[in-house]
Write a structure and sequence with these properties.
binds (1E)-4-oxobut-1-ene-1,2,4-tricarboxylic acid
Length: 352
Amino acid sequence: MSPNPLPASGVRCLLMRGGTSKGAYFLAEDLPADPGERDDLLLRVMGSPDPRQIDGIGGAHPLTSKVAVISPAAGADSDVDYLFLQVGVEEATVTDRQNCGNILAGVGPFAVERGLVAPGRETTSVRIHMVNSDSVAMATFPTPGGVVQYDGDTAISDVPGTAAAITLDFADTEGSASGSLLPTGNVRDVIDGIEVTCIDNGMPVVVAYARDFGITGYESAAELARLADRIQPMRLEAGKLMGLGDVSEASVPKTTLVAAPRDGGTICTRTFIPVKPHTSIGVLGAVSVGTAVLMDGAVGHELAHVTGNRLDIEHPSGHLEVEVELDGAHVRRSGVVRTARKLFDGTVFPRS
Ligand code: NQM
C-alpha cells in the first residue's frame, strides 16, 4: 500500500500550454463516463463559476479555462480521439460546441506521455480525431530518443520565448459546427445594416469590417472590451442564420473584425470569443478568417494581400501564419505551426 494514498476525489491531470491557450488534459478513462457528472466535476476542477476561478486551476479567462479529454481512437482513421470542452469562467457552463486548435497542439505530446501512442526515434506523427467536428488533424513533433521534446527555437506570437515546433495539418474542417463552409448559403449577408461573411472552416466565425464598428481595427484587445454590447446582437442573429440556433449561451460563433494589413501580413484582425476580445486569434478561427478573405465577394477579400497559400493573419499581439488551399469553393487542406509545453503532471483535487 502506498505510504501516502491519494484521496478518492483526486483526478490524474496534465496541465499544458497548447499554443496560446492553457488547459487541463485528461485521459477519458480518468473522468466519469456520464457527460453530466463529468461536466460537474470539470466545473469544480476549474473553479467555475467565479471570475477569478480562485478555488480551481482555471486561469480566469476563456483562453485558460479549457479541457482536453483524450482516449484511444474508436475509429481506424486515427490514433486518438480528442474531445475539447470550453469551461465557462463566470458561468457554470461546459460546452463541446467548438473545437480548439491551440489546445490541439498539446494532444500529440499528451498521447505519447500517457502511452497511447508509441513515439518515433526522431519525430512522431499522431492522427487525432477531433470529436467536436468529426475531422482529423495530423500533429508532428520532435521525440528524439523516443521522448517528447518541448524545448526548441520556434516563437509564436503572444507566448514568451521559444519552444519546439508542432505542425498541425487539417482535413475535412469545412462546416465543423454548422455543416457547411458558408452556413448561410451566401458569401455575404447583412445583419442590422452590417455586412458580414459567416464562415466555418474549423470554427464558425462572423467576419465584419472594423470600420462598421467605428474602429480602425488596429486597437489593442483591452480597448475593444467596450464593443461587447454591439457584437452580441449581431452574433445572436448570425447564429440563427448559420443554423446554430440560440447561441446566447454558446461559445460560437466567434466574431472577427477585419481591416487592411499594416505589418506586411495578409489581413489585420480583431477577434471576440465570443464577445470578449481575444489577445491574438484562435488557430481554427484564423484558418476560417483566412479562408473567407480568399473568397471572391467575402467581407475583407478586397482588403487582403494574398500572395499564395500562406496567410499571415495580423492580430493584436503579432501574427499567426496559417496555410489554406482552396479547390474552387472547397477547402483542400489547411495547416499551422504551434508549440506546446508540459507545465504540471499530477493529481487535481476538485472542490466537493
Ligand atoms: O480557433 C479561442 C484559442 C481559441 C480557439 C476561441 C482556437 C481555435 O485561441 O482553433 O484555438 O476561439 O475561443 O485557443
